[in-house]
Amino acid sequence: MSGQALARVEGVHGEGVHEDPGGFDLLAPDGTRYRVDVTDGVLDPHNPLLAGYVEGRRVVAFVGPTVDRLYGDRLRAYLNARLEPGSWSVHTIDSGERSKTLESAERVCAIAKETGLDRHGVMLAVGGGIVADVVGFAASMYSRGIRYIKVNTTLVGQVDVGVGVKTGVNALNTKNMFGAYHPAHASLNDPALLATLPAREIRCGLAEIVKMAVILDADLFRALEEHPDAFQRSTDGAFETYVVRTSMRLMMEELCPNLREHDLARLVDFGHTFSPVIETAGGHRLEHGEAVAVDMALSAHLARLLGLLDEESCERVVNLLRRIGLPVFDPDTCTPELMTQALRASWQRRGRKLHLVVPTGIGKADFVEQLEDVPADVLRGALDALAQAGGTR
Ligand SMILES: NC(=O)c1ccc[n+]([C@@H]2O[C@H](COP(=O)([O-])OP(=O)(O)OC[C@H]3O[C@@H](n4cnc5c(N)ncnc54)[C@H](O)[C@@H]3O)[C@@H](O)[C@H]2O)c1
Ligand SMILES: [Zn+2]
């Protein structure tokens, strides 16, 4: 645990992020507080953590089909062992970005209603970001807001979705068009669940981790350069635990003073300016983390061309993404027209300021604030540089 980091974020009233061996406590300046647990054997009936959070409450659990296949039996066995008979049920909902819809959230509410869930009850999302976002959003509207718990089963889920308070669904052709800030009653993370993740999903999680490293932590970046195959090799997991916990802590420290995004200039939006369009205009061919990787590479080249980032650092960012196996260019969507549209959409979303996050070194970043600060020829130049450097990977 880093005392230095705590000192940096801890405010006068104990606000900030406090790390302990079992996870993190966050207390935001607006009084919001929540805990993010890191635990072993979350679905082992001997592990009291999850049961402790739901004690005495009706539980309606939701899983996607894959997680149901891999962990459904264990989940049911856990709930069966730890909770009152008849007080819980498990339901499968569609997963996949195309199923992250208002209809899905409504279906979650309908299932909850059928089981008689009242305001005292709790929704349980066991899965990746999609299930967490849909169930979290459903929980935020059900009876004007009930408790929900996330058990995060993907790397993105653990380092990103699981540490924040955002929920939402896609609509009107726009990512996360409808949503709510709705902190979870508990967020449980068991690194062992990541062992079954497909390589592509690991890479997507690594994209979000690279994001944190580029903007805030040169040591983490160097560590990833040494092991771009993290989470995909057989080791004792110590390195992976360092990577996950560091990324979680950095993310929580960044989110803490600005949980509900009153300040629309957010460093953690690095990689999230062009990526929504890369995702939607590409028909979700690229996954979220892959689109974020392309966006980070593009933003790094923009920074280089704007004279904000040296050439070597730009190369290190793009090379690390490549070595992880992430795409750094997507010819179908990375056109000057679509990327200009993406800039405009971000400008609009961020209160008519661009707030484009660009690296200014490894572990450092800054904002490009105005649309005019990214001239068309610079955007074109950055896209050309990426296209020439060799296709998608
Ligand atoms: N709310 C937030 O703050 C926030 C932050 C980041 C991303 N998101 C959203 O999260 C979504 C992406 O989440 P994701 O990357 O977790 O994707 P996901 O939920 O689609 O999961 C990826 C795939 O992995 C499978 N899976 C899940 N756990 C598994 C396991 N342990 N073993 C094997 N397979 C497993 C799933 O079935 C799915 O096919 C996007 O919609 C993104 O917008 C939200
Ligand atoms: Zn993201």
From TrEMBL:
Ranges where the 3-dehydroquinate synthase C-terminal domain occurs: 205-331
Reactions catalysed, as given in the entry: D-sedoheptulose 7-phosphate = 2-epi-5-epi-valiolone + phosphate
SUPFAM superfamilies reported in the protein's UniProt record: Dehydroquinate synthase-like
Necessary cofactors: NAD(+)
GO BP terms in the entry: antibiotic biosynthetic process
Keyword Metal-binding: yes
Start and end residues of each 3-dehydroquinate synthase N-terminal domain: 92-203
Database matches in InterPro entries: Dehydroquinate_synthase, DHQS/DOIS_N, DHQS_C, EEVS-like
Enzyme class label: lyase
Membrane-crossing residue ranges in chain numbering: none
GO terms of molecular function: 3-dehydroquinate synthase activity; metal ion binding; nucleotide binding
EC number: 4.2.3.152
Keywords on record: Lyase, Metal-binding, NAD, Nucleotide-binding
Protein name: 2-epi-5-epi-valiolone synthase
